[in-house]
Amino acid sequence: MSALGGPGELLKGATTMDISQWPILSMLIFLPVAGAGLLFLIPWRGDFLPKALALVVAGLNLLLSLALFRAFDPSSSGMQFVEKARWIPEIGASYYLGIDGISLFMVLITTFMVPMALLSSWEQVERRPKMFYGFMLLLEAGLIGIFLALDLLLFYVFWEVMLLPMYFLIGLWGGAERRYATIKLIIYTMGGSLLMLVAILVLYFIHQGQTGEYTFDITRLYGTTIPPQALLPMGLAFFAAFAVKSPLFPFHTWLPDAHAEAPISGAVDITGLLIKTGAYAFLRFLLPLFPEFSISYAPMIVMLALIANIYGAVVATAQQDLKRLIAYSSVSHVGLVILGIFVFNLQGVEGAILMMVSIVLASGGLFMGVGMLYKRSRSKDISQMGGVWRDMPLLGGFFMFFTLASVGIPGLSNFVGEFLIFLGAFRANTFYGVLAAFVMVLTAVYLLWMFWRVMFGPSPAVARAWQDLSIGETVTLTIPAIVILLMGVYPKIFLDRIEPSAKGLLGHVEKKLVQREDLRAGYKSSTGEKVHGHRLSSR
Amino acid sequence: MVTTSHYLILGSALFGIGVLGFLMKRNVIVLLMCVELMINGAGVSFVALCRQTGSLEGQVFVLFAMVIAAVEIAVGLSLILLIFRNRATLDVDKLEVLKW
Amino acid sequence: MVKDSCIAGCIWLIPALPLLGAAFNCLLGRRVGNLLVGIIGCGSIGLSAVLSLFIFNTFLALPVEQRRIEVNLYNWIPSGDFSAPLTLLLDPLSMVMAAMVSGVSFLIHVYSTGYMRKDESFARYFFYLNLFVFFMLLLVLAGNFLVLYIGWEGVGLCSYLLISFWYERESAARAGLKAFVVTRFGDFFFLLGIFLIFVNFGTIHFGSVFEKAPEVLSTTTATWIALLIFAGAIGKSAQVPLHTWLPDAMEAPTPVSALIHAATMVTAGVYLVARCYTIFELSPIATHTVGIVGLATAFISATVALVHNDIKRILAYSTVSQLGHMFLGLGVGAPGAAIFHLLTHAFAKALLFLGAGAVIHALHEEMDIKRMGALKQYIPATFWTFTIGALAMSGIPGFAGFFSKDAILHATFVHGGVLVWLMILLTASFTGFYTFRIVFLAFFGEKRWDVHVERPIGVMTVPLAALAFLAIAGGYMGVPHALGGMDKIGGFLAPVFSSHNPAEPAEGGAQAPEILLMVMSAIAAFGGIGTAYYFYMTPQGKEAPNRLRQRVAPIYELLSNAWYFDRVYQAVFVEPFMKAAGFFWEAVDSSVIDNAVRGVANSFLGGGSIVPKLQIGAVRWYALFMVLGITVMLGYVFLLM
């Protein structure tokens, strides 16, 4: 732990020391927990110290994850840095963590966005900043836990624990309608997760029945054969939990409310991170645990994803509230991500993972921009704006940059993900590809129209004394902008690490299907041609 | 010959009278007395069954129950006294403040 | 070989230099002052232009079969069996385009330093403009479809940014959005075309795709791919029915109109179709479509240009019409002629726009030609260069436009039939009429304005002169065989389209009709100019336009409303879409789905409000419930036993 003294020392340490010997994944989870504990328990005087402490903790976590990134072996498709310890041996639950190419970037983007969110809310949280920062750190810990857990029960714990800080962040620091928003969020997500808990237990007992072993270890559970009559209810239960969190149409209506009412930096995290857990869980749990369900119901899921994709874009056009508009754009983008997952080819899955990371950055950047605008204008109503560029050219420039990233201009991050998803969808089924790609037109419509209404046009007659961005704000926006550019220009860094795991995942799904050819034949006859439309390919 | 059954019938009768009384009477003091009847009905059954099985545990229970019943009466009566001072009535149907 | 590697080593610099300029102007532009911004902006493009001319020179020295140099910079998107490396390709086609783009861009940059010198967003302007040149050069130098697509989207983006440059004007913001969305609609098809290519070929690399195309593609697939690509070209090159954004794009500063909306970006569609010509050749349907769309566009927009009074809009419709000519050339199997026309048009139209810019500048943002006149005496240099541009545009023998238009007309006559040829001939006379209508109304006649004339400064006049030179000389790189020339450009480009029979059929026997055709087209152009002269220069013709207008009132209405395209689109697409958006939000999202969610919540609340009613506060009732409960439970147990 002495190597954590400073960034330079840490990186140096990474080169000389064998980092894989550290319990680095646990450190990623428990460092923020410890930070939050310090924030909550010590009676701090003043606001600066606790804020600085939170930022330092989040920064250390970022460095830690970067060290992890350096030590990550891009050629391996398996779990790395695995940590396993007894947790509740009586029921076969273990503390089991691991990381692969799919979760690597989820973790990185989390550790990256949390300091961003802290920075962007530095001056915006006036009430009890200590608590706010503590909850942010807890949220970080919960999110990282979700991405790292390889034990179904542990995953479920993190999955639920994460809601608590979310609840408080929106409920205590949110906007006027925050109570409605939080309760909606909780009801929606709890409803989904409880179904999943039941399905987890059923899976647990089925596995026990087949192997005589009680375990929640997902790598073991991957091998379970689900009896055909249990397949649909269990698959649906998992699907419901993840679809709500993603959020997939028609379970999406909590998101705009939660978004609109969330505090600015909380909003960064909801957009970016909370909803990525849903899409991530599809990849980590639904696909490998229930390949038959995933494949045979893929046409329906894909339809929902396509509807979400286009519907989100259309509804976004009608929004008058900036944050709500961006929330609907997230709904639309998440539709694409889920489409990419359920077309079952390498391009789709890789595109989906890149897209998840990229939405976090692009929407997060937009949200931070909106937050900075809100700080000056005290309004989120688009019709109240206009001519902002004249007053704040620097903000205008950044806002344009993030808008364009969301629109999917080549050279910026969203494009790579979008392109791969479109391509994957097109290969799976021409119709999917055409519908999915059409959204690029709609995205341009609603985002650029939003930009026009906010930024363009004459300055209002009333003089506004809005200062352009401060240096701190500029830095806060520059960092994600650089990453967006990097991802757009040189996505190879990301794709190289994602590819083995994505290939492994698709290979696993395929293998499991082939193993039970009889079952598959039964399903093929019941769903007809559609299975053919979903030829697996890990090309 | 008085068998265990007789004792059990006595116990049940005491308990039944207690229950019926509790349901039918309105005076709080009478309700309290009915509760005592029920406790004692249960006590009689306990003792009788203990004697039949030859174990002492039931007897101990009954002694405990009696002590607790005494304490309960003390607390109960003092509560009733307070209620009567405040409300000037002992009719349970009129004491229905604790509702939704 | 040495030359090869030398070229290969520095191709990337051609687009990279403008990118560096853009980066500098973006990050530091606001600090360093306009002078340095201008120097960096022009200098980076200038270097890039010099470099591409130098490479061009080296390139010409190579033997024909070696004129195809590819550079792989790095693998941009690798994903399974899909890979999209950042490949640059230098072959005759991209060489010509790169040289033209960098050269014209340089001249327009220089002009812009004068035109925009008083604008407060000088640095932002040069940032956008440099970025545009970067994307445009990337587009023409691309070695696979996806790199081309980067450039394709990038130029669209810069076009959007520059159209909305004066963002405080509502109309500029609107025009920018319209341009972006309409062209993106085309891009959507183009992207699908790329997917289809990848699915069929397993690669998106130009060389492999075009080489294998004849074996791999069935006619149907080729038709699909070609039509999808062409749909992209329709959007970007403003062809009917997606042309409506270009006239609105005139909200951009005039040098931008010259660069993006006349010389370079809008010709990207022509370049794209020429690049994929191998695929188009496989599908007669696709080539016919290209020709028909080109013809329709050429004719429709030429007619609209006849009646407009806004100088930039006239030129915009003229651009659309000339792009139609190029597509017609592509459609009738003459890609070399189309590219030739692309080049000469770029010079002439850039010149006309810059000249128009000088006029607008002189009259303080006046764009209505009805309120100009007699400018010849005030800004003679502009007058002369503008007139050269107009002559080149109209296709007067001796000027650049003549040779290229003739090449297209000839191919049209041979492959397209007489009727098509006649229509294009009519269009040619329209072209002569509307260009000279500007010349006569703006520079001659009486003075219809009263402001202090602002004379163009040196940096504005020099590019005009340079472009005027090109607008004359540019034609001589393609003097047809019929006139005893060598058709150098056709020969130079031929290897790119070599799978086809030579683009310009120039056998000895065809000479007589070709010369006849030239004479005809010259007569048509002179006819148009003569009519304009009669209408606007002679006293007896003064009343003729008005009389004509009254006589054909319905047609005049049709033309001045630009064939009602915009109104129809507004009614058919824009308004229903906005209504649908409102409907889905209010009726579906906020009502159906949210009410379902609230329904679930309320059902719990409702249930929760009934159960507590049992708690009535009466002790004896509670006791009764307990007794009943115990009875039921005991009864259940006894029954089970």
Question: Can you walk through the features of this model?
Answer:
Chain A is mainly α. Chain A has 23 helices and 2 strands. In chain A, strand 1 and strand 2 form a beta hairpin. Residues 1-16 and 523-539 of chain A have low confidence and may be disordered. The longest helix of chain B is centred in the last third of the chain and has 31 residues, at 57-87. The termini of chain B are far apart. In chain C, helix 5 packs antiparallel against helix 6. The longest helix of chain C has 46 residues, at 565-610. Chain C is globular, with a radius of gyration of 31 Å. Chains in contact: A-C, B-C. The interface between B and C is medium-sized, with 13 and 11 residues.
Average pLDDT score of chain B: 88
Structural class of chain A: mainly alpha
Tell me which CATH architecture of chain B applies here. Orthogonal Bundle
Secondary structure category of chain B: mainly alpha
Question: What is the element layout, followed by pairings?
Answer:
The complex is a heterotrimer of chains A (539), B (100) and C (641).
Chain A: H1 7-16, H2 24-41, H3 48-71, E1 80-88, E2 93-99, H4 101-120, H5 129-148, H6 152-161, H7 163-173, H8 178-211, H9 218-221, H10 228-245, H11 254-261, H12 264-289, H13 291-317, H14 322-341, H15 346-377, H16 388-391, H17 393-407, H18 413-428, H19 430-455, H20 471-489, H21 492-515, H22 517-527, H23 530-533
Antiparallel strand pairs in A: 1-2
Chain B: H1 4-24, H2 28-53, H3 57-87
Helix pairs in contact in B: 1-2, 2-3
Chain C: H1 2-10, H2 13-27, H3 29-32, H4 34-61, E1 69-79, E2 82-90, H5 92-115, H6 122-141, H7 145-163, H8 170-201, H9 206-216, H10 219-236, H11 245-248, H12 254-263, H13 268-275, H14 277-281, H15 284-307, H16 311-331, H17 335-362, H18 380-394, H19 400-416, H20 418-443, H21 458-473, H22 488-493, H23 511-537, H24 544-551, H25 553-560, H26 565-610, H27 619-640
Antiparallel strand pairs in C: 1-2
Helix pairs in contact in C: 1-4, 2-4, 2-6, 4-5, 4-6, 5-6, 5-12, 5-17, 5-21, 6-7, 7-8, 8-10, 10-13, 10-15, 12-17, 15-16, 15-20, 16-17, 16-19, 16-20, 17-18, 17-19, 17-21, 18-20, 18-21, 19-20, 19-23, 20-23
Short structural summary:
Chain A has helices at residues 7-16, 24-41, 48-71, 101-120, 129-148, 152-161, 163-173, 178-211, 218-221, 228-245, 254-261, 264-289, 291-317, 322-341, 346-377, 388-391, 393-407, 413-428, 430-455, 471-489, 492-515, 517-527, 530-533, and strands spanning 80-88, 93-99.
